[in-house]
TrEMBL record:
<dbReference type="GO" id="GO:0032981">
    <property type="term" value="P:mitochondrial respiratory chain complex I assembly"/>
</dbReference>
<protein>
    <recommendedName>
        <fullName>Nucleotide-binding protein-like</fullName>
    </recommendedName>
</protein>
<dbReference type="GO" id="GO:0140663">
    <property type="term" value="F:ATP-dependent FeS chaperone activity"/>
</dbReference>
<dbReference type="Pfam" id="PF10609">
    <property type="entry name" value="ParA"/>
</dbReference>
<keyword id="KW-0408">Iron</keyword>
<keyword id="KW-0479">Metal-binding</keyword>
<keyword id="KW-0411">Iron-sulfur</keyword>
<dbReference type="InterPro" id="IPR019591">
    <property type="entry name" value="Mrp/NBP35_ATP-bd"/>
</dbReference>
<dbReference type="InterPro" id="IPR044304">
    <property type="entry name" value="NUBPL-like"/>
</dbReference>
<keyword id="KW-0496">Mitochondrion</keyword>
<dbReference type="GO" id="GO:0046872">
    <property type="term" value="F:metal ion binding"/>
</dbReference>
<dbReference type="GO" id="GO:0051539">
    <property type="term" value="F:4 iron, 4 sulfur cluster binding"/>
</dbReference>
<keyword id="KW-0067">ATP-binding</keyword>
<keyword id="KW-0004">4Fe-4S</keyword>
<keyword id="KW-0547">Nucleotide-binding</keyword>
<dbReference type="InterPro" id="IPR027417">
    <property type="entry name" value="P-loop_NTPase"/>
</dbReference>
<keyword id="KW-0809">Transit peptide</keyword>
Length: 268
């Protein structure tokens, strides 16, 4: 991994939580958004959400936010806010449907700006929606920020769990504690009879967590309402808090907050 890299502190932020996945398409951003909203609304915390997925920013759509951030007198960007969560995303800085066609150094520069040039204010938790995979961007963020812990997101398929293992190994190599694994799309529950069907397999995430010495933090069901509320910019934990899907996210937030508090708060 090379020589040690000096970590940046973000003043006023108690805990930094990375939400990551070894591959795309496993519901990482949806989990990050609902986790952030649940922490803010259920636990009355000051929460920020950093959308570090420069190439595929989805936080603006999921959080129903648009427009360019305003700036402070010292030229820092002011996060946009909804559902009690302060958000920053490359999607706020690009025109609609514009693609970020950048090479590595430009990506690193954008991520550095999110770390150093955003007026986050005082936060109990800064949730970082990591880019999928284990490349330069992921390693840079993990080395540059004092991340309290990482949560790995996977679906039950073996191929997704293989990539989740790779992601967990990356975090361990850069000395970032892993809080645990979340199994997304864990099962389909029939809305009529309540029967649960494990469409993508059963038991794989639990076995992977045990083998990798991680906690299985939660299992999120496969339900159309999660997709619909995410597309509509109304996270299910806010728009339908009594639903089984929202309750699954809320239980996940409860456990994540417990584990964060076991760690030492970030300096600054």
């Amino acid at each position: 991994m090379g020589p040690p890299v000096a970590r940046l502190s973000i003043p006023g932020v108690d805990y930094m939580l990375a939400v990551a996945s070894g591959k795309g398409g496993v519901g990482k951003s949806t989990t990050a958004v609902n986790l952030a909203v649940a922490l803010a609304q259920n636990h009355n915390l000051s929460v920020g959400l950093m959308d570090a997925d420069v190439f595929g920013p989805s936080v603006p759509r999921m959080m129903n936010l648009s427009g360019r951030p305003k700036a402070t007198e010292d030229h820092k960007m002011i996060p946009l806010e909804n559902f009690g969560v302060r958000c920053m995303s490359m999607g706020f800085l690009l025109q609609d449907d514009a693609a970020a066609v950048w090479r590595g150094p430009m990506v690193m520069s954008a991520l550095e700006s999110f770390m150093k040039k955003v007026a986050w204010g005082n936060l109990n938790v800064l949730v970082i929606d990591m880019p999928p995979g284990t490349g330069d961007a992921q390693i840079t963020i993990s080395q540059r920020l004092p991340i309290t812990g990482a949560v790995m997101i996977s679906t039950p398929q073996d191929i997704a769990l293989i990539d989740a293992r790779k992601g967990a190994t990356m975090f361990r190599n850069v000395k970032v504690p892993i809080l645990g694994l979340v199994e997304n799309m864990s099962y389909y529950q029939c809305p009529s009879c309540g029967h649960q069907e494990h469409i993508f397999g059963d038991g794989g995430a639990k076995r992977t967590a045990q083998e990798m010495q991680m906690e299985l933090l939660g299992q999120i069901p496969l339900h159309i309402s999660i997709r619909e509320t995410s597309d509509a910019g109304a996270p299910i934990v806010a728009s339908n808090p009594g639903s089984p899907s929202a309750q699954a996210y809320s239980k996940l937030a409860d456990r994540v907050w417990e584990k964060l508090q076991m760690a030492r708060p970030n300096p600054g």
